[in-house]
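User: quick one - fold this with zinc ion bound?
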Amino acid sequence: MLKKLLFCLTLCLFVCGAALAQEESAQTLKAKNAVWLIGDGMGTGAMGLFMQGVRLTQLPQYPDKQTTLERFINASVTGMYFNNTYDTIVTDSAGAATQMASGEFSRPDYLGVNHDGQTVQTLLEEALEHGKAVGVITDVYVADATPAAFLAHTQSRSAKYDIARQLVASGAQVIMGGGLKYFTQKENKKLLNQAKKQGWQVVKTSKELSKIKKGRVLGLFAEEAMPFYGEADRYKQTPTLKEMTEKAVELLSQNENGFVLVVEAGKLDWALHDQEAGPSMWEMINLDETLAYLWNFAKQSTDTLLYVNADHETGVPVFHYRHLDEETFKHKSSQGEMLYGGDTDYVNYPYYQKMFNHKRLLYYVYPEFKKLPKQQQTAEKLQEMADEAFGGHLDLRLNGEVPSYEDLIRRLNDALGVAWATGNHSAGMLLSVAYGPGAQEFAGVYHNTHIKGKFESALGF
Ligand SMILES: [Zn+2]
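Assistant: Sure. Structure tokens for the protein plus zinc ion:
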């Protein structure tokens, strides 16, 4: 009996001890590097539309019909989080990025300052104190809210010239994106010269970027934002988000103490604000290809934490079913579309293909149409120009009339079967995905002011 008891006791001690040791090793395993990929405006609606769209369509980029995002989620730790600011339910990119970067409550419009207007230390500034190299990349402009919140401090996100000076004066090693004009105009006419004196290598094209092999790089590849991804082949001299990310990792990983890199897919938010599902999904492809590169790097390096999230949700696009009027019903039936329940359109699979075929924004097409000589501004011409952007025919049912831009967007979404909750931001809950050492920190439901602390634990700060 005693023997049995002793055996049980020993076994228990052994098992408990092993479990403790295991827990300890999981806790002490720290990340040397961290990469934070932010999809600006990327709510779960946009994520779902993208992942399902790829599953139900045959896109050349996805021969096995699965996004990297889906694979990454399945291999990682997921969490959900809120992003309310100090006293508002809905946020903008400035307030959201400030709260994520600093761990403190802030307000819309505020950058790198808390709700009292006091300067707060951001994750990147803290990483610098720990001897890490840091960088920020975006495909909008570098003085815009998301990248700026990690390195600048001001109560107004529109103070872009001031922000540009703060970026140059920051301790970052890599800053890349658009927004050249904020470094060359008004009071900043000499800023690039000052930047060069401070060791920045200033580059403006893909070719110049490819020649940089070490040191600091300030890449400014467009006067304002960089091109939408669906139109990337029109701008051969402009690097993509993935190309900028590859270079940033190449440069930052030369630092023996590791690095922290923030990458923003910012054009996604713009396409979602415009309520154009196709171009929005091309921005998701943009993010997905960048993620594929980063995930591969994280897998190979083994001491890199890769965290993917959003600052807020924009637009909230979703396919929805509709009861059709008689005319639309007849029109659709005559096109051979399957309809159910008498008059209801549940949206057939091929609509995903139509969505992905649409790469160019009507936001650009409409002003081009309006610049045509008056007699050429006909409904037929507008449909023709729109079809070019759609990469095929999508009947806008203009009935001989030229609509306003807003009405045109409404007709686009009507033709596609997509509904939008808003043309602005929603307070919808967001999904986070973490992979690598410290990923477990990001499990469960949390608030965006907790993100910085989770990074600190993961990085051992
Ligand atoms: Zn936005």
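One thing worth noting: The pocket of zinc ion is lined by residues 41, 93, 269, 273, 314, 425 (CB under 6 Å).
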